[in-house]
Amino acid sequence: MRPALIALAACAAAAPARAAVWQAGGALVDVSIEMEGAPAPLLAARDGSGRFYFEARAGRAYSVRVANHSPERVGVVLAVDGLNAVSGEREPGPSASSPPGRMYVIDPWGDVSVRGWRTSLDEVRRFTFVDERASYAARTGRANGRMGWIEAWVYRERPSVRVWRPRPGPRDRPPAPYEEKDEGRDRNEGTPDAAAPRATPAPAPVPEEAPPESKTADGHLQRRPQDGAGRYPGTGWGSRSDDPAMLVDFVPDLRPVDCVTLRYEYAPALRALGLLPEPWDRDRLRQRDRGEGFARPPAW
């Protein structure tokens, strides 16, 4: 019996462990997920794509935290379900022919927690896991091939242009103070002030998410299954939340330096992708018939 135990131990030691991480690292930023105040474990994709997966839980609110680990300001275009988190419009991704979409600017070594769809400079509507058909993208007619995706495109700030002016000579002396004041009044008279930048308009209203209940043929309410089997998640239009922000000047490069990609699914889909272990009772009948299996923890 000893050789069998030794062989079993050797096989267990040789089996690769797929340990979860708490943040997806990029060239300039790290991205993590917080679900109701607690960090969500991230699982690396098995195909080497660099994507990270995490488990969506129906009805739970979540936030996307982006931390800048560089000594420079960066701009981050965040897309959830293929929609820009600031404007709510479809986010096509980087393009050499057009500037990037609305973004969050993060100071050197700073971080930002994006908690929802931004409706103004004061409020957001919380990111909340719902079924795909009840997602914000589906309810606004913007469902696309990026459902279940969270993408963060990171842009460096374009260096500011500095104009060199020669030192004025004797003939180019500035006017006397009273002359400057008078000329300034003449030049500016009738010139309108530059229009102040406006906050992003609120996305189209979306009905509040209905509770996970449905009616039977006789009119009684029954609870929908909550295990996620046969269903796929999306991000809904959650509750209103205070989340102040401010407009800043930031001219990004046309091309991003990096893109950090996360994917979320319900637990059954993560098991199907080989990222989560199968539940104990999946092959229990075969184990019982063959006299196999291992000790399981007690339920009480």
Estimated helix fraction: 10-25%
Q: Spell the H/E element sequence.
A: HEEEEEEEEEEEEHEHEEEEHH
Number of domains: 1
Shape: elongated
Q: How would a textbook summarize the main sheet?
A: 8 strands, antiparallel
- Quaternary state of the chains: single chain
Number of distinct helices = 5
Distance between the termini: 32 Å
Low-confidence stretches: 1-17, 173-204, 206-218, 220-226
Q: Radius of gyration in whole Å, from Cα?
A: 27 Å
Structural class: alpha+beta
How many beta-strand segments? Answer: 17
Question: In what range is the share of β-strand residues?
Answer: 25-35%
Instruction: Give the averaged pLDDT, no decimals.
Output: 78
Give the structure's gist in a few sentences.
With 300 residues, the chain is of the alpha+beta class. Helices cover 14% and strands 28% of the residues.
